[in-house]
């Protein structure tokens, strides 16, 4: 058996010298040292040896195993070094080469306009309030003087999740939540920017999801003239000092009196053009004095305080500010369109 072990050593070491790759080396390890390898097969015959022969043969077997394993480990280390050197050669970077140019990004026009609106109102002392996009019917409608079966609900075809839960159709629920959080304290001056959802067909001027900014002021002695002055300052900050506004009577369930606000056309300055259909005016937002029932729902006494509210679509402001004729441009991710705003 000793002769067989020595012969196995010589055979294995000779074969290992000709190994050319890691896989071949792994195969030889299995061939000679595996559970069914040549060394194991020889050692199965040790049971027939005498007690004096077993230690001698065991020592020889360990020597053979150690010699084979040493060569295998040496070869493995050599293959790893060669692999590392090859990777370093193939992945070498010439640091003197110019870098790959990356296209400059730009703030999305809707985000740009939203930030401008926020900055203008923050400059007038307003704070930003936020609320959930998934709302209850109470906050979205009932607290805003729109009880069940109110006909004005038909103007806001809604995405209902359950009978009492829906995707908010306006950011006005944030106004109610903010009033309740104040527990009747005043003054309160907030704007509420955010996404809103209505079941509408997508076209050049409508979308099922769009962005609004609503404002609310509650305090003692708040008047309609305060509302008009606030909106005039906003319009002039956004569109230029030459801009003018006018208020037309309208109806909203949550304000009384209510008004639609027009501004002089941003394209022709009020002279009349295709954009304003020759009138010189463009509709920009809705507003009014907060209805007493809405004040009560928010925890205020309408005999003690008054307030005004207004709301505008950010897409509408962006269309007017940049002279864009189709709201869908904001959502199609066309880089040719969006890259224009990198220069603004």
TrEMBL record:
GO molecular function: ATP binding; catalytic activity, acting on a protein; magnesium ion binding; phenylalanine-tRNA ligase activity; transferase activity; tRNA binding
Cofactor(s) this protein cannot do without: Mg(2+)
Record's cofactor remark: Binds 2 magnesium ions per tetramer.
Cellular localization per UniProt: Cytoplasm
Gene Ontology terms: biological process: phenylalanyl-tRNA aminoacylation
Keywords tagged on the record: Aminoacyl-tRNA synthetase, ATP-binding, Cytoplasm, Ligase, Magnesium, Metal-binding, Nucleotide-binding, Protein biosynthesis
Kinase recorded as keyword: no
Top-level EC class: ligase
GO terms under cellular component: cytoplasm
Annotated residues for binding of Mg(2+): 256
Domain Aminoacyl-transfer RNA synthetases class-II family profile residues, every copy: 111-320
Pfam families assigned: Phe_tRNA-synt_N, tRNA-synt_2d
Chief subcellular location: cytoplasm
Similarity comment: Belongs to the class-II aminoacyl-tRNA synthetase family. Phe-tRNA synthetase alpha subunit type 1 subfamily.
Subunit structure of this chain's protein: Tetramer of two alpha and two beta subunits.
UniProt protein name: Phenylalanine--tRNA ligase alpha subunit
Gene source species: Paenibacillus herberti
């Amino acid at each position: 058996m000793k002769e067989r072990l020595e012969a196995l050593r010589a055979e294995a070491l000779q074969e290992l010298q000709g190994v050319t790759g890691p896989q071949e080396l792994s195969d030889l390890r299995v061939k000679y040292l595996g559970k069914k390898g040549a060394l194991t097969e020889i050692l199965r015959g040790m049971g027939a040896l005498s007690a004096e022969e077993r230690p001698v043969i065991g020592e020889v077997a360990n020597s053979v195993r150690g010699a084979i394993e040493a060569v295998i480990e040496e070869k493995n280390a050599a293959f790893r070094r060669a692999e590392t050197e090859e990777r370093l050669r193939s992945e070498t970077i010439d640091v003197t080469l110019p870098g790959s140019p990356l296209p400059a990004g730009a703030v999305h026009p809707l985000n740009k306009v939203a930030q401008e609106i926020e900055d203008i109102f923050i400059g007038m002392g307003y704070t930003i309030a936020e609320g959930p996009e998934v709302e209850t019917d109470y906050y979205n409608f009932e607290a805003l003087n729109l009880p069940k079966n109110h006909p004005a609900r038909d103007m806001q075809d809604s995405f209902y999740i359950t009978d009492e839960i829906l995707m908010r159709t306006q950011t006005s629920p944030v106004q109610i939540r903010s009033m309740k959080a104040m527990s009747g304290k005043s003054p309160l001056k907030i704007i509420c920017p955010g996404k809103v959802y209505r079941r509408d067909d997508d076209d050049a001027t409508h979308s099922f999801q769009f962005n609004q900014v609503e404002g609310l002021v509650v305090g003692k002695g708040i008047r309609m003239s305060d509302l008009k002055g606030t909106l005039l300052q906003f319009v002039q900050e956004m569109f230029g000092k030459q801009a003018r506004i006018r208020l037309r009577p309208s109806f909203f369930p949550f304000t009384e009196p209510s008004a639609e606000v027009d501004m002089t056309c941003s394209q022709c300055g009020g002279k009349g053009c295709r954009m304003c259909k020759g009138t010189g005016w463009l509709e920009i937002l809705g507003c009014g004095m907060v209805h007493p029932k809405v004040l009560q729902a928010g925890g205020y006494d309408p005999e003690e305080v008054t307030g005004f509210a207004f709301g505008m679509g950010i897409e509408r402001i962006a269309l007017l500010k940049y002279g864009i004729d189709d709201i869908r441009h904001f959502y199609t991710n066309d880089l040719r369109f969006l890259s224009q705003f990198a220069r603004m």
